[in-house]
Write a structure and sequence with these properties.
Shape: elongated
Organism: Mucilaginibacter panaciglaebae
InterPro entries: ArsR-like_HTH, HTH_ArsR_DNA-bd_dom, WH-like_DNA-bd_sf, WH_DNA-bd_sf
Helix content: 55-70%
Protein name: Metalloregulator ArsR/SmtB family transcription factor
CATH class of one domain: Mainly Alpha
Number of helices: 5
Structural class: alpha+beta
Oligomer: single chain
Pfam families: HTH_20
Radius of gyration: 18 Å
Length: about 100
């Protein structure tokens, strides 16, 4: 049985995060993505497939090219998870600020 991929797996890898950053500005074809990294096109293709399986990237064909587009809505799951801790750290910083002002 194949394990289900999730957005946390996608962003766990620095190469995949860099690909998401790259695609956030505009869609790119696979060659343009691969040209930005010092690894094989096959390795980049695997990273993009993982991003697609996690719902962060969609791919469409345009002639012979595969155009990749980022789907940032998938990161809302991560934002929701982080936000539960954001309040905790904001409170700590507020308390530190009050302490420093006294």
């Amino acid at each position: 049985m194949k394990a289900r991929r999730d957005v946390y797996q996608a962003i766990a890898d620095p190469t995949r995060r860099a690909i998401v950053d790259m695609l956030a500005s505009q869609p790119h074809n696979m060659n343009a993505i691969a040209d930005q990294f010092s690894m094989t096109r096959q390795a980049i293709s695997l990273h993009v497939k993982i991003l697609a399986a996690c719902g962060l990237v969609s791919m469409k064909r345009a002639g012979r090219e595969h155009i990749c587009e980022v789907k940032l809505d998938a990161l809302s799951e991560v934002d929701a998870w982080i936000s539960q801790y954001r309040k905790h750290y904001e409170d700590k910083l507020d308390n530190l600020n009050k302490y420093l002002q006294t």
